[in-house]
Design goal:
The protein contains eight helices and eight strands. It is α/β, with parallel strands linked by helices. The mean pLDDT is about 100. The protein binds D-xylitol-5-phosphate (DX5) and zinc ion (ZN). The site of D-xylitol-5-phosphate has 22 residues, from strand 2, strand 8 and helix 7.
Length: about 210
């Protein structure tokens, strides 16, 4: 399991030491949640913070943009050092163009679905993306409860991927801990995002190891 801890739940006053801790853990990516207060009812952090994080680590940055019209920022996100640029299906008017421009900028394109958006909406873009993120909470806040319906969507997504030439990975984000992580692993997820479960754990390195072993 590819574990992508979300630094939304990190200690922003000591971000460097949390990034250093992730470097000693079995985490493979660092998940950066950007919120604009429009697409979601919260504002998190922006590009200068991601750029600072990229200078502290060689781990790939998995940038999850909960913002309207993310295509405006493809070049900025690339210049921040992102490896994966993840945009919401619901936030892109011309998703195909956005995905192509992310790849042309040298990043891996990923697309995210909100809990109420059907997997079938990806039918005509699935072969163009490197990853699909299924939100298992409504985006905007850490620490929410996992929505069980996500399990059905993981299975549907797995079927969609295997019925095409797509090699997209399946990532799940929201309410992930070792219990819900086991459910999504069994359903076929390749990657989990975890914020509060990792940074709220007494031993974050052990928590990440437990998620990685799922
Ligand atoms: C939610 C964010 C998540 C969040 C997950 O809008 O996209 O990445 O950090 O937090 P937990 O793991 O606490 O649900
Ligand atoms: Zn996220």
């Amino acid at each position: 399991m590819i574990v992508a801890p979300s630094i939304l739940s990190a200690d922003f006053g000591h971000l460097a030491s949390d990034i250093e801790m992730l470097g000693r853990s079995r985490a493979q990516w660092i998940h950066c949640d950007v919120m604009d207060g429009v697409f979601v009812p919260n504002i998190s952090f922006g590009f200068p913070v991601i750029k600072a994080v990229s200078k502290l680590t060689d781990m790939p940055l998995d940038v999850h943009l909960m913002i309207v019209d993310p295509d405006r920022y493809v070049g900025v996100v690339r210049d921040c050092g992102a490896a994966i640029m993840n945009v919401h299906y619901e936030a892109c008017t011309h998703l195909h163009r956005t995905v192509q421009s992310i790849r042309a900028a040298g990043m891996k394109p990923a697309v995210t679905l909100n809990p109420a958006t059907p997997v079938a909406m990806l039918q005509d873009i699935i072969e163009d993306v490197d990853m699909v993120l299924l939100m298992s909470v409504n985006p905007g806040f850490g620490g929410q409860s996992f929505i069980e319906h996500t399990i059905k969507k993981i299975k549907e997504l797995k079927n969609l991927i295997s019925s095409t030439s797509s090699k997209a990975l399946i990532q799940v984000d929201g309410g992930i801990n070792t219990t819900t992580g086991r459910l999504v692993a069994e359903a076929g997820a390749d990657s989990v995002v975890a914020g509060s479960a990792v940074f709220g754990a007494p031993d974050p390195i052990a928590e990440i190891a437990a998620l990685a072993a799922l």
